[in-house]
Each structure stands twice: as C-alpha cells, then as structure tokens.
Amino acid sequence: METRAAVTPPRPDRALATEAVHAGREDLAGLGVHAVPLDLSTTYPSSDSRGEAARLDAFATTGARLDGPPVYGRLDNPTTARFETALARLEGTEAAVAFASGMAALTACLLARSADGLRHVVAVRPLYGCSDHLLTAGLLGTEVTWTDPAGIEDAMRPDTGLVVVETPANPTLAEVDLRAIAHSCGTVPLLADNTFATPVLQRPAESGARVVLHSATKYLGGHGDVLGGVVACDEEFARRLRHVRFATGGVLHPLAGYLLLRGLSTLPVRVRAASATAAVLAARLADDPRVTAVHYPRIGGAMIAFDVAGDPHAVIGGVRLITPAVSLGSVDSLIQHPASISHRIVGADDRRRGGVGDRLLRLSVGLEDVEDLWQDLDGALAASVAPELPARAAAPAG
Ligand SMILES: *Cc1c(COP(=O)(O)O)cnc(C)c1O
Predict the structure, then answer these.
(1) Buried-state track 23-42, b at ≥16 Cβ within 10 A, e below 16
(2) Does domain 16-41+77-265 match CATH 1.20.1560.10?
(3) Would I find Transferase among this entry's keywords (predicted)?
(4) What is the DSSP letter of 45?
(5) Residues 164/154, Cβ–Cβ less than 8 Å
(6) pLDDT tens for residues 326-353?
(7) Ligand 1 lined by 342 (C-beta under 6 Å)
(8) Total-model pTM
(9) Domains in the chain: boundaries
(10) Per DSSP, what are the bridge partners of residue 334?
(11) Mean pLDDT of the chain
C-alpha cells in the first residue's frame, strides 16, 4: 500500500511554478513511480483493531490527519491528501482540506463555526450566487448581515463567526482590500473566496485572510471535468474542517483529487496565458461602442465582465466559438448571463444592489487564440445591437 503523503513544510525558496509541479509529489521517486498513484479504496484492511481504535480516538480528539494508513475513505484518502498538500503550499498556508464541491467547502466552514455557537456571518456582496443564497436562506442555521467593506466592524456581533468576501467577486469582478478588511475583522476569521484569482495572482493568506476558499471546479481543475472544493487555512481551522467533513460526508472523490492535483501542475501557465488574452479582449471591449462598461480587475486575471448596450441574450445566442455555459476557469472560453444563470437564485433587488445588472455578461477567457475569440465576440455583439436583423446564421444542424 502507498504510504500517505507527508505534510511537507512550505518551501519559501521555491517559486510557485516549481511548487505547482512538485508539491505533494516529493515521495514519488522513492516509491519508484512517476505518475501519482490513484487510490480508490473505500476501506483499508488492518488486523490491528486496537491500533486503529487509538488512531480514530486521536482523530476524534485532535482532527489531525491520520497518522499511518487510512481507515475509511470518508476520513482520509492518500490521493486527495496529495492535492491538499500541494494547494496549501501554493496558497502559503499550513493545511488545506478538500471537499466534494465549492459549496460543500463553504458549508463546512459555516458549520465549523456554528458548532462553536458562532452562527452569525458578516458578508460583502456580490458573492457567487449560491454562496449568497446559502447565507441569505440561513439553511444551515446561520444568520447573515450584508454590508460593504467599510461597515464590517459595525456589523460584528459577539456571535459573529466568519466574515465572507470574494475578490475579484463573481460575477462583477469587484475587488476589495483584503488587508484592510482583515484588520476590520479583529479576531474573527476572514474567509476570502479566491476562486477567480487563484494563488497565481493573489494569496489572500498573506493579506490576513485566515480561510481561503476555492471552487476547485474552476481554475484548479481547469478542464471543466471535475467538481471539487478546497479550503486552505491554518492547521487549527483545518482540524475543525476535517471533523465536519467526516461527520457530514462532503468528501472529494479520489479521482477528482487526482485530476485536481494534475490540474495544479499547469495552473500557473494556464492562468498567465488566459490572463494575457483577457487583458487584450478587455481593452478592445472598453473601446467598443456596443459595450457600455467593462469590469476587469486591477490584479488582472482571465475573467471579464461587461455590460452591453443591446440585448445580452443575443450575445449568448450569437457566440459560435465561445461556449455559452455557466462555470468558468476551463481551457476553453465560456460566457454566461449572470442575471439569468449564475446569480438567478439571488433575489432581483439583492442582485442589482450587489451590482449585477441585467445587461451584464461574464466571460471566462480560455486558451484559444485572441483573434479567434475577438472575431467571435465581435459577431455576437453585432447580433446584440441589431435585433431587427436576422441573428447570425445558425450553426448547421447535425
Ligand atoms: C462556482 C463557485 C463556487 C461554488 O463552487 P462549486 O464547485 O460549483 O460548488 C463558489 N465560489 C465561487 C466564486 C464560484 O465561482
């Protein structure tokens, strides 16, 4: 059986690009393999039930990663543990805990706090639509106060367990000053959703965020074929998250752990290449009379949001190369209309208050050639301002 991946200390001497391909894999040569072993076991045989009992007790008491071989797949998995080690190294945190999806990861963070009686959350809009919904609906017994960054200190209560922000935010790409917000949080942990920026562009832990959340489904996986979530944080918070994950079962499938670790190896290259293309497209959109506003983050990145003068639905119907679909962070470009899809679950008033207008489109720029992408956008924008003309010729059937 494969020995579990050791928790390796951060390597400040190594650049992110090096860590992306080596972190979590240092023991492979010693194992005599090159590719990461994929362990699909749900259970692990052991003739030493006294020893297992002691190790289970240790997990129940501390929440530390199991010492020695795994016991059961909901507790720990060696392939997923490699992904966790690698992501923690990229984010510069002590630990990371992986989940079945970004929403499972956020759920675990909320439950970890409310288990300590800290049921109140302070949050800044906009957030990803389902994150907004989870907080607004209070489904997990939490209560939310929405505020702007300047109002965070005043919104705090004795039972505030978490402050939640996204930067750049989904879908408007609004940015907040993490360092200033972390200061306003005092001793309350700041959770920063770093899905859009990725550790390639921003490492929120360095700015004081205690909890860094990812929908790994997006850039970390990077190919639109794996759902996952992960929280990078200090070991103390990670221990609470491992307890919640064990109790509630939102575990990442080992194959997803494998694919996410593989995705990390190309993350810096993908993000930098797509960001360079996005910067060109953002500049062209800003100069285009059919576009009324372009939202492109100060820190850059591969996401663009823009408001159109005409019909946003015609743009969605008009693209031929770009995939009209929700989600983001894939090797191919995707476009969607947040008010219809990603943020549909947020009430219309809250949505507009969060800056998500009805003419806003969100574009996730992939790795296609910039001129091919521009040609496609140009054609779709033409359709958006000429509703009286027949839309671009439909793709041939079949
Ligand atoms: C997609 C997304 C989520 C939710 O992640 P899933 O993997 O879809 O559960 C959370 N935050 C942000 C910013 C997202 O884009």
Answers:
(1) bbbeebeeeeeeebeebebe
(2) no
(3) yes
(4) -
(5) no
(6) 999 999 999 999 999 999 999 999 999 8
(7) no
(8) 0.94
(9) 16-41+77-265, 268-384
(10) 323, 364
(11) 94
Structure tokens at 347: 């009430």
Question: Taking Cα atoms as reference points, which of 128, 125, 130 lies closest to residue 145?
Answer: 125
**Residue 170, ligand 1, Cβ within 6 A:** yes
Strand, helix or coil for residue 104: helix
The yes-or-no verdict on residue 207 having pLDDT over 60 is yes
215 CA distance to ligand 1 middle (Å): 4
Q: From CA 226, how far away is CA 253, in angstroms rounded?
A: 10
Q: Residue of the nearest CA to atom 8 in ligand 1?
A: 102
103 lines ligand 1 (CB under 6 A): yes
How far apart, in whole angstroms, are the C-alpha atoms of residue 12 and residue 5?
20
Closest CA to ligand 1's atom 12: 128
Query: Ligand 1 within 6 A of 364 CB?
Result: no
User: For residues 365 and 362, what is the distance between their CA atoms, to the nearest angstrom?
Assistant: 10
- CATH class assigned to 268-384: alpha beta
Q: Could you tell me if the CB of 336 is within 6 A of ligand 1?
A: no
**Closest atom of ligand 1 to CA, residue 196:** 13
pLDDT tens for each residue of 73-98: 999 999 999 999 999 999 999 999 99
Two tokens, residue 4: 């579990």
Question: Which tens digits make up the pLDDT trace of 284-328?
Answer: 999 999 999 999 999 999 999 999 999 999 999 999 999 999 999
Cβ pair 99, 250 in contact under 8 A: yes
CB 163 within 8 A of CB 123: yes
217 lines ligand 1 (CB under 6 A): yes
Q: Is residue 318 within a helix (H) or strand (E), and if so which, with residue range?
A: helix 312-318
Long-range contacts (CB closer than 8 Å, 24 or more residues apart) made by 291-295: 291/381, 292/359, 295/172, 295/173, 295/174
